[in-house]
Every structure is written in C-alpha cells, then in structure tokens.
Amino acid sequence: MPEKKKITAIDSWGQALTTVSRLLRKFDTTLQESVGISAVWYDVLLRLSYAPNRRMRMQNLSESLILTRSGATRLVDRIEKAGLICREAAAEDRRGYYAILTDEGRAVMRRAKKIHGDDILASFGSHLDSDEQRLVYELMRKVADGNG
Amino acid sequence: MPEKKKITAIDSWGQALTTVSRLLRKFDTTLQESVGISAVWYDVLLRLSYAPNRRMRMQNLSESLILTRSGATRLVDRIEKAGLICREAAAEDRRGYYAILTDEGRAVMRRAKKIHGDDILASFGSHLDSDEQRLVYELMRKVADGNG
DNA sequence: AGACAATTATTGACAATGCAACTAATGAAT
DNA sequence: ATTCATTAGTTGCATTGTCAATAATTGTCT
C-alpha cells in the first residue's frame, strides 16, 4: 500500500504560488535582457495584439492585467512614452480612451513572442507532458471560474 | 469523438498566472482587513513559524520569499518596526543576522493562519476535490523541481 | 601571516503600484 | 431639462521593491 502524504488545499495553493512566482521572475529577466521589456509590458502588448483592432479601453486593460485603474494609467504612460502603444479618445464615450498597439509595438511583440514562447516551453512546458499541461490549464481555470 | 481544443504550454502557463494573481490579491485583501497584515508579511511570519527556533537568516528568507536581499532587508525592517519579528546577530557568522518571530508575531500568526486557511479553502480548495488538489501540488512541484 | 576574492547585509536613488481624491462625461429619474 | 448617482480616467501621496554601490566579515591560496 503506497504511503501518500495528505496534501491540503494550503499545501497545494502554496506550491502553486511559489512556482508561479519563481517562473514569472525568470521570464521577466529573460524578456528584459533579450527584448528590453518587462513581463508586465509583455502582458499589455500581448492583450492588445489579440484585441479587435489591436486596441482596448483602459478599463478592460486594467481588469485583465489585475491592476487598479490608476496602475494601468501609469503603466500605459510608460509604454506610450517608449512608443510601443498610443492613446486615442473613444468616439462612443468621451470619458474613455483606447490604448492602441503601434507598429513599433507590433514589431517588438513579434520578437518577444518568440523569445517568451521558447522560455515558457523550456521552463514550464518541457517538464509536463501534454496531458499534464491540459490538467494545469483546466484545474486553474476551474478555480478561476469558481471565483467569478 | 470529443472535440478537444489543443492546449499549449503558453495557454497553460497563462491560466496559472492569472488565477494565482487573482487569488493572491483576494487573499491579501482578506488578511489586510481581518488581521492587518499583507500576504507578504504573512509569508514571512509563516516561514519563521515553521523554521527551527523560529528564526531564519536574511539570505534564506529572501530566497524563500522570492525577493532580492535588499527587498528582504526593507521588508524585515517594516515587520520589525511593527513588533512581529526582531533581528539578532548570527553568532557563527558575524556578517549575518537572524530574523526571529516575536511572541506578538506568534500571536498574530495564530489568528492569521485561521483566517487565511479558511480563505484558501473557500476560494481555492472548495473548487477542487482532494485528488485535484494533489494534482495541482504535484504538477507545480514538478515544474519547480525542473527549474532547480 | 597576508592578499585578494567571495559572501552577508544594508543603504541611497529610483521605478512601480495602490489608495483616495478629483474631473469630466454619461445615464436615469423626475 | 435638471438633478443626482455612476462611471472612466487621471493625479498626488505613500508604500513597496529593485539595482548598484558599500561596509564588514569570511575563506582561500600562496
């Protein structure tokens, strides 16, 4: 009879937290060194690159980035200053603004996606087979869905 | 034949990252409101509470917290000022210091563990059965091990 | 023993982020 | 149409964390 240590929700969460934190830091370093952008910037550019017309309202952006709106404002300020995105007033709601990926942003993103994709594969993907990767995806998704 | 969308390592990592980020923020809010400490403080106190003699060298602490040493110095400064931990010079290596859990820190930790444990159960554990929790633990551990 | 490299922790300067307060615009109710 | 609550975004201030440089101590090599 195999001896199995009891794994509590606390253990499970704790391991998820440390693993994700470590990897994130690693990915951030790679991106910074090879493309000159942080993982947070990457996240912004990625979402914009998939958004319709490569643009998102500040509000949506801040939600998907898990940042406060003010945090998003500051972040977009910096990336805009670097020329990778720009702002445009929203025609349909004059309170709002769009953050829009610039051509330069797209170019940076092409390089970054390659580098970062390889990095994820090397540090994360290569240690799990495809079923396991699916499991991680589905379990994490289930937790996320369970929290609204 | 069930149609399954292909899940890449990138999808899997992305979901893990957002789920963990969201939960962490939620946990942080709860701890802050109910015990008056952040999730980071909690992490420090937790590790100290399990460490031999409830003390750890700054170096070890910073590693397990995924923080730079200078970040750990600042963090320990603040928690020390709050009276939850204290510093003590290391006898065996006069360059070093221990961070040590105080009695007050232990008291705070007793309350925090209960609150935070419940929170983890409610937001994470309740959405996964015990096998799934074990899976998350083992998969995340495998990734962590694969990265040194 | 003496010289030099490596390690531990801290500090100053600065970057990033949250909170609360604010402005401008929208929408809903009368 | 006017009023009032709500929403989008930005800003000032405080907090938190990083990076590079520093001081003190230890270890190594001859």
Segments of chain A where pLDDT lies below 50 for 5+ residues?
A: none
How many strands, which pairing sense, and closed or not: the largest β-sheet of chain A?
A: 3 strands, antiparallel
Helix content of chain A: 55-70%
Number of domains in the coordinates of chain A?
Answer: 1
Q: Name the CATH architecture of chain A.
A: Orthogonal Bundle
Q: Which homologous superfamily in CATH is the superfamily of chain A?
A: Winged helix-like DNA-binding domain superfamily/Winged helix DNA-binding domain
**Total DSSP E strands of chain A:** 3
Descriptors:
Arc Repressor Mutant, subunit A; globular; homodimer; DNA-binding; three-stranded antiparallel beta sheet; 148 residues; mainly alpha
Structure in words:
The structure is a homodimer of 148-residue chains. By secondary structure, chain A is mainly alpha-helical. Chain A has one domain: Arc Repressor Mutant, subunit A. Helices cover 66% and strands 9% of the residues of chain A. Chain A has 6 helices and 3 strands, in the order ααβααββαα. A 3-stranded antiparallel sheet of chain A has the order 1-3-2. In chain A, β2 and β3 (97-101) form a beta hairpin. The mean pLDDT of chain A is 96. Chains A and B meet through α1, α5 and α6 of A and α1, α5 and α6 of B. Chain B binds a DNA duplex (30 and 30 nucleotides) through α4.
